[in-house]
Structure formats: C-alpha cells, structure tokens
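Lecture 7 notes: from sequence to structure.

We start with a single chain of 261 residues. Read the sequence below before looking at the structure.
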Amino acid sequence: MASLASVNKDGVSLNTVGAVQDDTDARNLAAHLSGRSRSPQPRRLSREDEAVHEAYDILYDIVKKPQNYTADKISDIIVEITEEDDSPVVRYGRFAGNYNADLADRDSNVYKYWRNYRSHKKRWDAKRDEMVARKKEELEEKGMKITDGMDRKEKRKIVEKRRPLLREVFNKYNRGGLGQQIYYLLGKVEEIEHEKRYGASSSDSSDSSEDKKVSAGASKEGGRRKTRKKRRRKKTRKKRKSRKKKKTKRRRRKRKTKKRR
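Now the structure, written as tokens:
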C-alpha cells in the first residue's frame, strides 16, 4: 500500500500524470523521488587534522619557550614533522588550509590562532594587497611598466621580470590559514636551532672578519641539513635493529614450538 507522502488527497499516486494538485503534493513528490532528507553528520577532526594541530602546538611552544629545548631536540622535532615516514608532510603533503582549526580544543593554541585569523583576515589581506600595489608602482617607476604601445613579446618580458618580485612581497605580507602559519613557525624554529647550535647569527656579530663571515655563512647553509641527516640516519638504524631483534625473537619462538611438537 502506498504511503501517505506518495499519494495526493484523493489517494492517487503522485507518480501518475496529473496527480500533483497543489504545493503539498509537489513537496511530497520531491521528497519521494529524492528520498527523505538525512540529518547532516557532525564535523569531526580527522587523523590529518590532529597530526597538523599537534605539529602547530609543538612549534608554537618552541617559539614561545625556546629555553625549554636543546638544539638537538629542536632538530629532532623538525625532522619528525617534515621528513619522517609518518610525519604529516610525508603522509599528507604540504601544509595548506585551516585543518578544521575551529573544532580544536578551546584552550589550544590552534583554536586561538583560528580566532585571530578569522577576526583579522580582511585587514591582513588589505595590507598585503596594498604592499603589492606599492611594489608594482615602484617597479613601474623603474621602467617595468606595461603600455599600450608594446607588443605581446615586450609585455610578456616585463610580466616575467615583475612576477618574482611581486610574489616575494605577496608572500611576505600574506598571512593565511593554519598551514601557512606552520611554515612561518618552522622558519622561526630553524632560526632558534641555529642560534643554539652555532651562537648568534652573523648579522648580529660585531666582528667583521671575512673569515668569520664565510664560516658563519657556510654553517648556516649546510650545518642544519647535515645534522638532521645524521640524526635521521641514527633513527633509521635504531628502527632497523629493533625490527631485526623482533624477527629473531619470532624465529626462536617458532623453533621452540617445533621442537616441543
């Protein structure tokens, strides 16, 4: 027997031609064809969201309380976030977006950043666009202005020259979602690690000796990468050793079991 929602007031099936007589019949037919509306599922944090939130919290803590971390500990944390096999970057790709930051714990730094981001985004974007416009005017005054008298080739050359310069300003003043803020924090954390490992940066040093400048520059460029690689190799070796031990134990157990039989 047809349900009430699938027939009109005369008991004629709404699927019959001419059976729809009023708005109620039309709504009932639409509901019958599309199925009953389902209540929306509540939003929840995914594993990716939780991993990214955890990465943000630890980076934020390092920036705010650098005295609680050694250079080696900071290096390990950077590797765990960006380079380890189970790191958020390796598992999910580059950081981008807000990762449901509004669902984070109300007392967490992630939620605080999201509220700040939501409140100031329009002002941040306006400031960014203003600085890009200023840079564009500056470049036009230096001869990088596109005019109607130029052909396509000339216009393309100027666009290609201006693009990286404008992009640099855009990136400098662009304050985006949680993913972008993580990259900002990573940069700060790397600076903290470098200062802890090698002392004050060369720009803060009063010694202008050419040898020290070269030494500082070399250590800044390659020191961090080499140290992280060494520490990552050590971790990999430890993991391999632990796996071998587990396999050896399993084999011994199997042998003992066979002997008993």
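The mean pLDDT is 78. Keep this in mind for problem set 3.
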